[in-house]
Amino acid sequence: MQKRLVLDQQQIDITLKRFCYQLIENHDDFENTVFLGLQPRGTLLLDKIVALLKEISGIAVPSGYLDATFHRDDFRRRDFPLKANETKIDFLVEGKKVVLIDDVLYKGRSVRAAMDAMIAFGRPQKVELMVLVDRRLTRDYPILPDYYGLKVNTLDSQYVVVEWVAQGNPADAIWITEKVTS
Amino acid sequence: MSQLSTRHLLGIKELSEADIQLVLETATNFKEVINRPIKKVPSLRDITIANIFFENSTRTRLSFELAEKRLSADVVNFSSSNSSVKKGETLVDTVNNILAMKVDMVVMRHASPGAPHFLSKYVPANVVNAGDGTHEHPTQALLDAFSMQEKLGDLKGKKIAIIGDILHSRVALSNIFCLQKLGAEVRVCGPVTLIPKYIESLGVKVELDLQKILNWCDVANVLRIQLERQQIKYFPSLREYSLYYGINKKMLDGLNKEIVVMHPGPINRGVELSSDAADSAHSIILDQVENGVAVRMAVLYLLAGAKG
Fold this sequence. Notes:
CATH topology of chain A: Rossmann fold
Strand content of chain A: 25-35%
Helix content of chain B: 25-40%
Helix content of chain A: 10-25%
Number of domains of chain A: 1
Oligomer: heterodimer
Radius of gyration of chain B: 19 Å
Strand order of the largest sheet of chain A: 3-2-4-5-6
Largest interface: A-B, 24 and 28 residues
Largest sheet of chain A: 5 strands, parallel
Structural class of chain A: alpha/beta
Structural class of chain B: alpha/beta
CATH class of chain A: Alpha Beta
CATH architecture of the largest domain in chain B: 3-Layer(aba) Sandwich
Radius of gyration of chain A: 16 Å
Number of helices of chain A: 3
Distance between the termini of chain B: 19 Å
Number of domains of chain B: 2
Order of helices and strands of chain B: HEHEHEHEHEHEEHEHHEHH
Shape of chain B: globular
Strand order of the largest sheet of chain B: 7-6-5-8-9
CATH topology of the largest domain in chain B: Rossmann fold
């Protein structure tokens, strides 16, 4: 299986720092800002951003995990339903500036579902999207990120794999791999 | 695994432990959903569900209807008292006529044991058993297990007592199957006339002394005396039953241990449970009702989710 490294540990560290400084530029003291990490993989990126931002600015931004399984548009169109993950949001987003955080932006369908799920917690003032990797040629919905680490040109026959040390990998890394066809 | 091994929920007996765990895990997600400011998700928006109740029900029918509405399903309700069943229509004809109006799922309560099993063979829709006579009440057992897990954690090795009218109770049978599959030890307690003859063949011990079973158990699941199903006298009087098998708060406090008291409802206050016991800190009866909606959402979601 072909596997190509597109971001290594050092590049990811730099990208995360850049994200933090961009957030500081756009959100000042974060008084009215909340972060939502999209389940299942955006939550690891969220945790890293929250920790790094605290280290850089001393500000602890309220954050939560959002699962959009029950809002997906492919229910009954898959062989079996997807298993839901935990939604853990102990605040309302009414009137807040929300930054949705995910690892990879692919079709845009998960983000659409996530925005639908988010509305259950109130009407936000503004919503932004942060992704580590933007797969720009594969979008089904008109969704673009406000913050991105890397734009890649990929085919549907490829995967973008994000590995984190927190998941037991030797280093943080992002790979592009080919899907195995039988 | 994210798929049930069955396309109908007819009884707990047919489910595997993995099926039960999947329902309970999914119910955890739905419990979070029903505690949101907007308690609704769009998953079942293209599904129509018929609630067909040939027997009286308040809690179960409302709970199913709420679960369906919170999943955005379209709902039609049917009760036998004002239907063509009275005019002699058969069960399969009644249900097939409802399905001809493009209904996808059927939730049915029926007085005859096995009615939903029979129906599932003759109709193309997913069938959910909401209680069939004295046989099974699977969603009640699932919500009971969910409520116990919420309170006690993993049920492996936990001691559960089912107390009261075991003979006429579909809740008892479904609870026994469900709790045993989850690794709990189950005993039943009640007057000897209300204990089924061969219950021990299910691996369930019988205890006739209420005080002894309360000393033994972590959870007391108390059942109602089902007078409507009793054609003969099984005990001299309700007063006598209450003296021997009624639970009050003084008894519970006297145990000097954590004990969880449950009841599937409706409670006959002063018969199987005194008011002070039903409303005490030991009781999780209203949690059961809340959890019922989440568990039924999980069941409907998982059954409806499979393609084709």
